[in-house]
Structures are given as C-alpha cells and as structure tokens.
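hey so u asked for the seq, here:
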Amino acid sequence: MSEATRVRAMPGVLLFVVMVTGIISSLGAPLIPSISEDLHVSLSSAQWSLTATLLIGVVASPVMGRLGDGPHRRETLLGGLVVVTAGSVIAALAPSLAVLVAGRAMQGVGLGLVPLGMATARDELPAEKVAPTIGLLSVAGAAGVGAGYPISGLLAGIDLSAAFWFGAVVAAIAFALSWAFVPSTKGRPQERLDLPGAALLTIGLSALLIAIAEGSGWGWSSAQTVGLFAVAVVFLALWVAQQLRASDPLVDLRLARIPAVLSADVCATILGVAMYMYLSGVSEFVQAPSELGYGFGATVVVAGLALVPFSIVSMIGARLLPFSTRLVGARNLLPTGCLAVAAGGVIFALTDGHLWGAFVMMGVLGLGYGLTYAAIPGIIVRAVPESETGSATGFYQVVRYIGFSVGSALAASILAGATPSGGSLPTVSGYHALTWIAVGICIIAAAFAWIIPAVDRRGGEPSAEELRREEEESELASAGLPSATRD
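ran it, structure tokens below
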C-alpha cells in the first residue's frame, strides 16, 4: 500500500474507530432494565454493567494515552480493540451478571482509544488536514454515543445479546482497518508508565464505587460499607501522595493549585456525577411499567431515542461556545452552563407524567453539557503554561470519568434504597430523589464556579482571536492533546 493511499484513507479509518468506541461505550444506560429482567437481578445490580465500563475508562484513558505517545501507539490501539472485541463477545455470551460485568469492564478499555486516534491524526496527516480531522473526530465521538442509544435499543428489542454481538462485529472491523492503515511509531522515546499510580487509583476508586452503590442495601453504618469507605480513603490518599512525588505521574495533581484549573475540574467532576445520574434515571424511568403508578412502559428502543436529543444538542451547544462566551462573558460561562443542567432536571421533575418531558429534559441537558464540556478544555489550556497543557487536560479527562462512574454508582444506590424489600423495581420516590439530588449538586457546581471563577492566569475576557480558536483548542485538549497552534 502506498503512503499516499494510507494518508487518504486514514481520516475515514480513524473516524470509524472513534465512532465504534462511542457506540460501544453507550451500550449501558438503555439496556439496564433489560439486563435486570433477563438475568433476574435488581436494577441497582444491573447498573454495574455501566459503572464497571466507566471505572475502567478512568484508568484506561491516561494509561493508553501515555503508551500512545511513545513507540507503541499502533500496538496499543490494536491491543485495545482486541480487548474491546473480546469483552463484547463475553458480554454477549454472559450467563450471569458477574460475567456480563467482566465483559463490560473490558469494553471500557475503548474509552482510552479516542485520544490515540486524535494523536494519530495529529502526527500522520498533512498539517492542513490536522485541525479539520480532529474536529470531525471530536464530533464523531459524541455522534457515536448518540447513535449507540437507539442502535443498542433496537438490537436489544430483538435479543439482549444482539447489542453486544453488534459491538463485537464493529470492533473487529475497526481492528482490521487499524491494522491495515495505522502506521507504527517505533523509534520514538517512551515516557515511564506510572503503573503504581494506576494500581492505587483503581483500588481506591473501586472500593469507593462499591461502597456507594451497595451502601443503601448493606446499610451505611455496616461493617462492609464503612470498611470499603476506609479502604477508598486510604488508597486514594496514597494515590494523591504518590502522584505528587512521582517524576512522571499518571496525572499531574499539582496543576489543581491554579484556581481556574481547580474550578474547571471540580465542575467537570460534579457535572459528570449528575450526567450519569440523569442518563441512568431517565432511561430506567421511561421503561418502567405504567402499572407501578409511574413510567411509560416504553420499549428499550424508545428509551434509547429519548437520550438522542442529549447528544445532538450537546454538539450544537459546543459549536455555540464562542457566541455564548461573548453573550454571558467568560466568567459567567461555567455557572450558566451548570444552571442549565440543573434546569433540565427541574423540567423532568415537573413533567415526569409525560413522555415528552424526557425528550425536552435531554435537549436542555445537552445544551448545558455542550457549553460546559466544550468550554472547560479551553479554560484549562489558557490557564496553564504551554508545557503543561497535556498534563492538565489529561487530569481533566480523569476527573470527568471519575464523575461519570460515581454518578452511575450513586444512581444505583439511590434507586436501591427506594426498592421495597423483595421487589426488583424502585418506587417513584427513588426517581424523584435521584433527580433533585442531581439538580442540587449542579447548583453547588454553579456556586463553586462563581466563587472561584474559571478565568485564565492573565485575567479578563479572551480575545476575539482566542474565541475563534476555542473550538479547535477544545477538541484537541479534550483528548489530552495540545492544539496545533501551540505545537
């Protein structure tokens, strides 16, 4: 194959890989009620099929990103796709929840592949194609998530395993295309991989998520719950200390001393918690049998479609970032976005007797998340020295995934606490509590962003030129890459 042919085909190949990872990662939320029914487990237990994927994504993203910066990018990409394909097969054949969760955890490795695709585009394509391709890949990631909801719903309507078999097939195709078109990076230097940091983070976060998810069932004062919280505190404290001492840390926690970075990362974490509380709650609520006195008895296909406005409007919101910044000002952008996310929850709480309320809520959430998650990488890029851009945005990716996984576990705990003894479905009070708690933490995030404004180290509003570059910087930085203008 000629080099010219490889370069021409590479944008399409990378686009397919990123779309696949988005689709596979979104196989969780709409399928939770189906998993609960097919495997005869509670909704809170079935929630682990989503939480496990996000947990592995927390660690996979920085680890695979670090591996991809060295001589093993191609091998890391191919190896990741092998793990995702195998995980999809295991999930499709799973006879029990434990096996399904193991397969879904393997699929979580796919969350670490998006930065590899963007890094490949940055290094292998002609300069004039880098920014447009990375912009397309950024949109494709969100589009893949949006497409995954109805696709998984449609396939699960036929058979639950069909959704996971679909994931296996498309991941295998992505492997074949990557094998043929993604070049090797052998010869590049490899930075030291922080395996102790990855291990400490995995143990600490796993203990925290199990304690949160199971605490309502075990009892918050039970020995198991208290013990797991203690393990989480110890290991996460050790992780923080180890990261601050390490010469090549998994994530550079020292950058959180910069007020704008601290504000942006705290908002990203809190909004991540709320996001998966909302997604889990709404997808389960609309599928609940109406005989319970709530819910609409909707199919998994309808539940998937209800989440599509979130993905579509979030992409529109991201594209409106420069206009929104000029409209409300850089200082007010994050608080406004957080309040928009809170407003989405209020809308659903007040209209939960109507199916259209779920669609409207998801559209409003998409606008809020589109603004905030598009703005945060640019805020971080402007706030830190150029040499620290990669570390700072890598930290952002980690805390965002932590928020996602905690939100999923917290949703499971709240709904489990509202499930009658011996029952498998929660009462409507559980969904009300989940929604209002998510609204409350979004308001807390808005207050935090107002008290510690996320403005860059120079102060003031970004210039017109900076606003024109905001979309490009956000797309690159959200993948942990410095923008082309900074290379």
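The chain has three domains: 1-183, 195-247, 251-487. The chain is about 75% helix and 0% strand.
lmk if thats what u needed
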